[in-house]
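Backbone-to-sequence.
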């Protein structure tokens, strides 16, 4: 039967993600619109974003943190273009964003000494194969596969190379072992439900040392330049952004950070996301038509939760027909106002993807799940009638 209870917030997109509970446009009323980001008040807001982020994420005091252009993608590419080439590189890839960094390193930077450690959707590469004397590039949480690394134990504490971690769907929802990470990137639009277009770049002292001692052999666009005269441009990490930020987005980011503090900081955010995962896991256990795409429970994402449909009828269809079926099913949910943007990423196996990060209320997850069962049954009935 069709459920009667709908989520209060039916937004389950994996980016941009749901706004924090209770958000309204009124939180933007004090945004410094029309003011320069280089003015005293403008720079204060930018520094506030940096310092509140640093505190919530429990980042070491000697790490630099800055706001950079072009969202998480810009932050990662800034790191790749600026830091790689001094050593061989190991790249881990098990979903589309990790594969995007493979393309950057092998086809754009065209580095010669690259090892690709790949795994299919649903699994992780062999983490024990990572060479600590080489630089390592990886995502902490595979947003399009729902597979995350379980911890940082596989990263050597005495490594010679740098670890460059795309953590955009992990930061503010998972614990990051800062002592194992030299470069960490994320964007406001993911776990905090902020607005898009701005990235965050965190650098360890080891990463700063590389920047100041190594000059890559390729030209660097202005947007990627982190050094001048062989020294780190410290202003980038003191609110002096490389290009003009949106002060409207800055105000929204500050609102999200203040909410995160009130929600219990990192402990509270992790508990909210893990609670949502537990709710979905209990439902999957009693649902015969799907399973987690992540094969190992220890690697299941608590933010971008990817579910594979196991129904034999569905899996007898061609891939195009499976994608069409998922789109039809999720269109039913959208038409009912029960859940938006729930189809898996176009690069993933056809299935369901639910964003369950800390800004999503568990009551909304609980309300969504019966609608997924209803939509799937409706899709099966329609297919048989056709």
């Amino acid at each position: 039967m069709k459920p009667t209870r709908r989520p209060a917030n039916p937004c389950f997109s994996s980016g941009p993600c749901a706004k924090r509970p209770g958000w309204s446009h009124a939180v933007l009323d004090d945004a410094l619109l029309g003011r320069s980001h280089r003015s005293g008040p403008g720079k204060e807001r930018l520094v506030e974003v940096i310092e509140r982020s640093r505190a919530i994420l429990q980042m070491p005091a000697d790490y630099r943190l800055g706001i950079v252009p072009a969202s998480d993608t810009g932050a990662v590419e800034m790191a790749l273009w600026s830091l790689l080439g001094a050593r061989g590189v190991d790249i881990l890839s098990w979903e589309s964003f990790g594969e995007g960094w493979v393309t950057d390193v092998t086809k754009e930077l065209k580095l010669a000494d690259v090892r690709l450690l790949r795994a299919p959707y649903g699994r992780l590469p062999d983490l024990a194969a990572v060479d600590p004397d080489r630089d390592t590039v990886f995502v902490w949480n595979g947003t399009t596969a729902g597979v995350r690394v379980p911890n940082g134990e596989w990263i050597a504490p005495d490594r010679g190379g740098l670890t460059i971690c795309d953590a955009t769907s992990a930061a503010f929802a998972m614990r990051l072992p800062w002592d194992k990470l030299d470069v960490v990137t994320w964007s406001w639009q993911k776990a905090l439900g902020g607005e898009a277009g701005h990235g965050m770049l965190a650098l360890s002292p080891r990463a700063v040392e590389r920047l100041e001692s190594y000059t890559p052999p390729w030209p660097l666009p202005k947007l990627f330049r982190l050094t001048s005269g062989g020294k780190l441009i410290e202003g980038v990490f003191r609110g002096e952004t490389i290009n003009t930020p949106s002060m409207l987005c800055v105000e929204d980011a500050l609102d999200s950070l203040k909410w995160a503090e009130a929600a219990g900081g990192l402990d509270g955010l992790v508990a909210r996301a893990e609670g949502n995962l537990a709710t979905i896991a209990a439902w999957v256990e009693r649902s015969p038509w799907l399973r987690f795409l992540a094969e190992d429970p220890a690697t299941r994402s608590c933010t971008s939760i990817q579910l594979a449909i196991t129904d034999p009828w569905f899996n007898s269809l061609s891939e195009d027909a499976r994608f069409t079926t998922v789109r039809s099913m999720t269109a039913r949910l959208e038409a009912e106002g029960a859940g938006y943007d729930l189809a898996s990423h176009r690069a993933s196996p056809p299935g369901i993807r639910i964003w369950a990060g800390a800004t999503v209320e568990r009551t909304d997850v609980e309300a969504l799940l019966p609608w997924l069962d209803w939509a799937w049954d409706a899709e099966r009935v329609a297919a048989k009638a056709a």
